[in-house]
Structures are given as C-alpha cells and as structure tokens.
Amino acid sequence: MTSLRYPVAGLILVFLLAFGIFLVALMPAAVMTPLLPTPATDNASLPPPKLYGLWWNGQGQAQWEGQQLDITWRLDWRGLTPGLELGFESGQVNATGWAGADWGDWRFEHWQASIPIALLNDFLPQGKAEGQLDISLPQLSLAGTEISAISGKLAYSGGTVTLGPGMDRQVPAIDGKLEMEKGVPVLTVTGPDQQSLAHANLTGKTLTLEVFRALPALLEMSEGGNATDVVFSTRQDLPVSAHSG
C-alpha cells in the first residue's frame, strides 16, 4: 500500500494542476469588469463596460463621448515581452496595434489609427477643419517616461479649413514624419511639394514647435518672404522626455 501512495499523490497533483490551468485559460473576460477604472464623468447613469469572451482573447463595449466604443484584445507575446493586440472603434475613429510591457518599459508596435479632423476642432484656437488624419506608428519604445525609439507617419487627407467668417480655404494633403535624430524625437510636416511647413522636436521634457512661412502661404494668409522663415514658435513641457542615452 505504501508503494501506491506516491503515484496516486502524483496523479492528484497533476490533475489539480491541469484543472487550475483549465480554469485560468477559460476564465471569462466579464470577471475583470469590477477591476476597470470608473470613467471620470458626472453622468451617474452611464452603464458599466460590457466584456465578452475570455480574459486573454475577448471584446468589450463601453460608452465614450456619447458614442459606443468597441474594444478587442488578444494576448500576444513578442519574444519574452508579454503584450496585447488591441483594437478600438467608435464611429469614424478606429485604432489597432500591439502594446507590451517589460519591467516598467513599454513597447508599442504597428499601430494604425484614423481620426476625423472635426474631432480636433475643440483644440483649435480659431476656426475649424474638415478631412481625415491617418496615423501610422510602427514603433514607439518608452524606458519609464523616456522615449528611446519612435518612427511613424501622419497623413492629412486635405479638406476645407475655416479660419473665420468668410475665410474658407481648400487645403491639399499634408504629410508628417516621426523619427529619431541623434537620440531626439523629431516631427517634420511637409506640404504637397515637399516644402517644410513645421518642425517639432523633444529635447529633455521640452517640446519645441516651429511653423515656417510656407504654411500660412499654403493657407493663402501670407505673400512674399522666404518660405523657410519661422513665423511662429512655442515651447511646452511634456510628461515624457527624450532618451538621454
């Protein structure tokens, strides 16, 4: 009888381990609903998010800015880095990509997003704009709060820009390029003839933005002068910084 105890105990242990793995693998996503942060809103009647599927491969629905937000996720390891393949869609806004974390460092890969410019009108000091903004972000790496790598492209489809009463302008397509230059994140915005319209860089925690005369000329707000003259510049501190290494 004594000789049978260890095989039986081993079988029980294997069974319990397999049963535990089975329970974890099939744990429904809905069990995470109480762990989700409460939206910062005064609307007490806002329904809680609804989650479906499994915790590692599922989808959800929530209310965002008065519209339904659809979310999908799937657990996806990249090498030794755990992460999620994510998808967001709300009306004309959609974004997909991978996000992973490794001991405080964050990696974002192959992100694609499309946003109607009309949603950004509240951030414009005057006027409004139409059109679509497409964002491609193949790589963004954060070491803590420091940007260690970034590459991406921005594309504005073009459209009508209203600068004030009776000041409608048809703006052509505009492109932007994100890249690292000597360890510093840089954004370059160019027009249809590849002329430089604006330039931004992040040095330390300070974002510096310069707008060249070519941009107001494109909007028919300026004539003459050198297209490379800086007509506007500003600096703003950000919660992230350029990688110091």
Helix and strand arrangement:
Layout: H1 2-25, E1 50-54, E2 57-64, E3 67-75, E4 83-90, E5 93-102, E6 105-116, E7 128-129, E8 132-143, E9 146-156, E10 159-162, E11 168-171, E12 174-181, E13 184-190, E14 196-203, E15 206-212, H2 214-218, E16 230-237, E17 241-242
Parallel strand pairs: 9-17
Antiparallel strand pairs: 1-2, 2-3, 3-4, 4-5, 5-6, 6-8, 7-10, 8-9, 9-12, 10-11, 12-13, 13-14, 14-15, 15-16
By secondary-structure content and strand pairing, the structural class works out as: mainly beta
Q: Mind describing the biggest β-sheet?
A: 14 strands, mixed
* Topology pattern, helix = H, strand = E: HEEEEEEEEEEEEEEEHEE
Mean pLDDT: 84
**How many strand units?**
17
The share of residues in extended strands comes to: over 45%
- Uncertain spans: none
- Rounded to the nearest angstrom, the radius of gyration is 25 Å
Shape: elongated
How far the N terminus sits from the C terminus, by CA atoms, comes to 66 Å
Percentage of residues assigned to helices: 10-25%
Quick tags:
mainly beta; 2 helices; 17 strands
Tell me what the structure shows.
By secondary structure, the chain is mainly β. Helix content is 12%, strand content 51%. It has helices at residues 2-25, 214-218, and strands spanning 50-54, 57-64, 67-75, 83-90, 93-102, 105-116, 128-129, 132-143, 146-156, 159-162, 168-171, 174-181, 184-190, 196-203, 206-212, 230-237, 241-242. The strands form 2 sheets. Strands 1, 2, 3, 4, 5, 6, 8, 9, 12, 13, 14, 15, 16 and 17 form a 14-stranded mixed beta sheet that branches.
State the gist of this model.
The protein has two helices and 17 strands. The protein is mainly beta.
